Amino acid sequence: MPNGYISSLEEVVELRKRLDKDGKKLVLTNGAFDLLHVGHVRYLTEAAALGDSLVVAINGDESVRELKGPGRPINSAEERAEMLRALRCVDRVVVFEDRRASGVIEAIHPHIYTKGGDYTPDSLIDEEKQLLDRLGIEIRILSLVPGKSTSSTLAKMSEGDGRPKRVAILGSGTGSNARAILQAAADGKLGGEVALVLSDVADAGILKIASEFEVPAIAIDPGSKKGGHLTDAALKEIHDRLQAASIDLVALAGFMRIVREPLLSAYAGRMLNLHPSLLPKHPGLHACKKAIDAGDTESGCTIHLVDAGVDTGEILRQEKVPILRGDSPDELQARIQSKEHVAYPEVIAERLAEIQPC
Ligand code: GRF
């Protein structure tokens, strides 16, 4: 849907051909570019300097909402394109609707593909990296301007609201991740406060840890359903308690129950889960044992959004660890947890910065 500021893929492909003829280079980058800030401008200026024409592929509105959560994008694709085209360094803007950029990379076939910031060539999504390698496209990673991001801009804006964002943790077990999250909040690193801890297990360690941090800790009766299921009454109680506590974000940390409605809709894009495998490998129970039994040489943790499936939601972060010869599931779990305790509070802080209070 090209407007005056959005180019069609065909136009950009033509541009690429013209540049080729003249021995010039097309640089492609992609992102949401929802709230333009000086970090974007410097990054794009640097990206443009790598070649002769800079094309920016921006996510369509639906994929920004999926990636960044409800309330995003703040600006429509047309508006974002208009802002980007006002920059001297940007030659064309195209819109793509997939979550991944592979389709647009393949169609445009740039000479150079660039990403910003915390990406490294190794952390590019495998699908994109394989494609770039196959097409012989040069990958350049540019540094981001410290402290200048959409998340930090939104966080600064919401500081003025007067109320810290509120996190609830749901867990069934020991609570080592809950401790890491509570400690990050106590150290002022979460960008919000932990306002509630819920468990479906009355004597779970996680409830004791919450009490240590003087955070309300409540046991919910899961009802009579077996396995990972909760009764409708239990789901309603969890929902009502979260609402009563004005919770903005829910973090599942070892919560051994399947989440259903009304929770999914109430916290779409605001409910995170932590899973001890590199999803989509080994979803569900006993993930460490499954990875060892499968003969995998590495595993890790995945932090993802919760959807109606089991461990299927949008992946926000993965951290890898090696599987050593002779590892027991418990040994592997402990190695994975040391990564979880660092990554989970960080991802919660990033997500909190991106969402508006409920
Ligand atoms: C974590 O290792 C997580 O990956 C899995 O359950 C475990 C919970 O551990 N979902 P803890 O209760 O946080 O110690």
Helix/strand layout:
Elements: H1 9-21, E1 26-31, H2 38-48, E2 53-59, H3 61-68, H4 77-85, E3 92-96, H5 102-108, E4 112-116, H6 126-135, E5 138-142, H7 150-159, E6 165-170, H8 176-186, E7 192-199, H9 205-212, E8 217-219, H10 232-244, E9 249-252, H11 263-266, E10 271-275, H12 287-293, E11 298-305, E12 315-322, H13 329-354
Residues 171, 173-178, 206, 253-254, 274-276, 301, 337, 340 line the site of 5-O-phosphono-beta-D-ribofuranosylamine.
Short descriptors:
alpha/beta, Rossmann fold, seven-stranded mixed sheet, five-stranded parallel sheet, 20% strand, binds 5-O-phosphono-beta-D-ribofuranosylamine
Work out the count of structural domains. 2
* Residue runs with pLDDT of under 50 for 5 or more positions: none
The side-by-side strand order for the widest beta sheet comes to 8-7-6-9-10-11-12
CATH superfamily of the largest domain: Formyl transferase, N-terminal domain
Radius of gyration: 22 Å
| Sheet having the most strands | 7 strands, mixed
In CATH, the topology of the largest domain is named Rossmann fold
**Proportion of helical residues:** 25-40%
Estimate the strand proportion: 15-25%
Question: What is the H/E string?
Answer: HEHEHHEHEHEHEHEHEHEHEHEEH
